[in-house]
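queue> holo job accepted (MGD)
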Amino acid sequence: MRQQNPDKPDPVQDSPTIGPPQSSAAGLPAVLNSVRHLGEHTGVRRGLPAMLAINQKRGFDCPGCAWPEGDKRHRAEFCENGAKAIAEEATAKALTAEFFARHPVADLAERSGYWLGRQGRLTEPMYLAEGAAHYEPIGWDRALNLVAEDLKALDSPDEAVFYTSGRTSNEAAFCYQLFARVLGTNNMPDCSNLCHESSGAALTETLGVGKGSVSLEDLRKADLIIVAGQNPGTNHPRMLTALERAKKGGTRIITVNPLPEAGMREFRNPQRASGLLGRGTELTDLFAQIRLGGDLALFSALNRLLLQADARGEKVLDQEFIATHTHGFEEFAQALLAEPEEEFWARTERATGLERALIERIAAMVTESQNIVVCWAMGLTQHKHSVPTIREIVDFLLLRGNVGRPGAGVCPVRGHSNVQGDRTMGIFERPSEEFLDALGAEFGFAPPREHGYDTVNAIRAMARGEVKVFFAMGGNFVAATPDTLVTEEAMRRVGLTVHVSTKLNRSHVVTGTRALILPALARSDRDPLHGRARWVTVEDSMGKVHASHGVLPPLSQGMRSEVDIICDLAGRVLGQTPVAWSELTDYDRVRDHVAAVVPGFSDFNARVRKPGGFTLPHAPRDERRFPTATGLANFTVNGTYAPEIPPGRLLLQTLRSHDQYNTTVYGLDDRYRGITGGRRVVLVNPEDARELGLVDGSHTDIVSEWADGRERRATRFRVVHYPTARGCAASYFPETNVLVPLDSTAEVSNTPTSKSVVVRFEPSTEP
Ligand SMILES: Nc1nc2c(c(=O)[nH]1)N[C@H]1C(S)=C(S)[C@@H](COP(=O)(O)OP(=O)(O)OC[C@H]3O[C@@H](n4cnc5c(=O)[nH]c(N)nc54)[C@H](O)[C@@H]3O)O[C@H]1N2
Ligand SMILES: Nc1nc2c(c(=O)[nH]1)N[C@H]1C(S)=C(S)[C@@H](COP(=O)(O)OP(=O)(O)OC[C@H]3O[C@@H](n4cnc5c(=O)[nH]c(N)nc54)[C@H](O)[C@@H]3O)O[C@H]1N2
Ligand SMILES: [Mo]
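queue> job finished
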């Protein structure tokens, strides 16, 4: 049977009411909401100890975002959305075999992701046999033998795919990639392919390190912070505290976004009485309401203005830095200055939707500032030209020497709480030769050298019927990836799909011929071995590695740690040579191997035991050394691409509401944007709406347009007139992933273009 997308219109569950967007973030409502979510899901006995342990030095790392903690911890070192993440994970509700006996998979496939997530924590291994209507309990031994048999029967290890989401600890990630590579494949797609891959690609090429170069201290010391393509009020709420602190010290902040996000307007710090009582800090000094995909044009214009000012003798470039540390400046400058002034500005105004005068004001703020940090997230990484855009930002920073000195640098703000660490541990379909050499030397084997599938290529291989085993370490593959109907069909062609998970989701009910759910312990859970507490480590968005200790008693004895699951399985498939898998259940052993393989981790076990952990080396940041192909920081020429919007169409971005964590829906409100009780909304500029005949409150189908001519339709969205930039619309994922074409990806990084989908609107086909 072929099911349709389950997050289909449901007028009862999904009937949004709309109020005005808010102009401030956090404050008392944030605190009340945290308490409500925890109370509802965990109860006081689990909720209170969990809250007191989040992000504390002896507690666990918040499973929400990757924003770092400062050296001095607040007693409540978490935010509203961290509380929701904990409530979701530490729920007191257990999902048992009895649940699966009651609900056939076909029935579960009709449920929304929101409903699935509310059914409780997965507590025992479940198996869906070929042709069976229900998942049935299977027990760990049989479950792992089943996977082992399928893996051993493959004609080639490349018929297996090992996906990773970004919550996996360093220890589990290291064991997982080791398992895949000893088996013989680099097929390790991960959520990063959908996320910051464009940042990694652009930064590695230009600076030599694919990570951010700033610390919290740098944000405080910056004279100017540009926040582009990011909504920290919802997705990195603790970043607002850092911005507030900077602001109070005199830093200016420019926000670049098609949407006037409340979090970047006024922040009411919930950790202080003044914030609770409603006096907040205005964060943004200048708001540039840019068109979707206009950032390359904006930063090119700023760079051109800087070059022109310097040519006039204003000395705005850091000539010494450019001469000593960079490569390609002449070519870059020449290309940027080539276009005649009038054409350049006409194109720039069209691409950005910003007036020249505003861009010149930004340029003036730039030249008035000594130290500059640029922060960004998905608004910059999920476009066709994301890599050129981020390279242009690097150009922008290099011009004034804003890399490798205090108060300045690049700040790609990472998503999942350990997505950066997973990559450091080797979760990557295109590992470096050095990494593979070190791995092979440590364990005495020859790792596969051929590059594996990234996420989009894994879906293509599944669609071709070339994947026999799909194994996921966390995540929700079919809902998080683009082109839902295409992807679901591809998933159904796999022989065996295996999910190591904490909560039920769509990927457990759209399966291969046979499917397994393996329930894992989560961050907040205690994880003892022979009576001794074990703990794991994570790396935050600023390259700091620290310990995470689970504190809550697990809901059931049926769950296992991710490391235990991998090592038990690996032993069954590969035996105990060359890797002694059974010894790796002692996480100190894993860390000793990491220390030997991964640069920057020497003496890992000792250093990570110090409170707060340690910061990984970062050559550009620490010593202005750029390990690129040229040995210098590279200026790049990035062209002039901007998305074209055909007449009668809009460009749609697919983003997060305040009540979701990626595909996990916590609730149906998006408080800051004034939306309550529903998610099937599309935000449209009132002028565009008038032109397109989209009446506020009416319902519309959204149809995306792409070269392959295939119809992609998301039905029955409520039109909301909203102050977004002209020509642009916004709607939530995962519901809108049906609209994102699999083949519409970013140059170089191959990340789906989730923030620029050309759409038209048609009268709703559903009542
Ligand atoms: N509570 C919560 N926290 C999360 C997550 C979550 O779902 N919920 N997800 C986590 C993950 S994995 C990630 S990657 C991060 C995501 O964090 P964000 O990147 O903040 O997430 P999005 O909701 O995708 O928001 C994108 C923002 O960029 C803007 N934008 C879109 N396109 C453009 C553009 O072309 N130019 C510019 N300048 N701006 C643009 C949008 O208007 C929006 O404000 O958050 C992490 N933290
Ligand atoms: N259209 C559109 N699509 C997008 C995006 C977008 O902006 N627009 N954003 C993309 C981005 S940035 C990302 S990062 C991806 C996210 O893609 P994924 O990481 O694949 O998706 P999540 O929704 O974060 O995964 C949630 C599931 O992870 C499991 N889980 C949670 N915690 C744990 C744990 O500790 N251990 C284990 N084993 N499992 C756990 C639970 O079962 C839960 O249901 O989505 C991408 N998809
Ligand atoms: Mo992400």
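queue> The chain has a mean pLDDT of 95.
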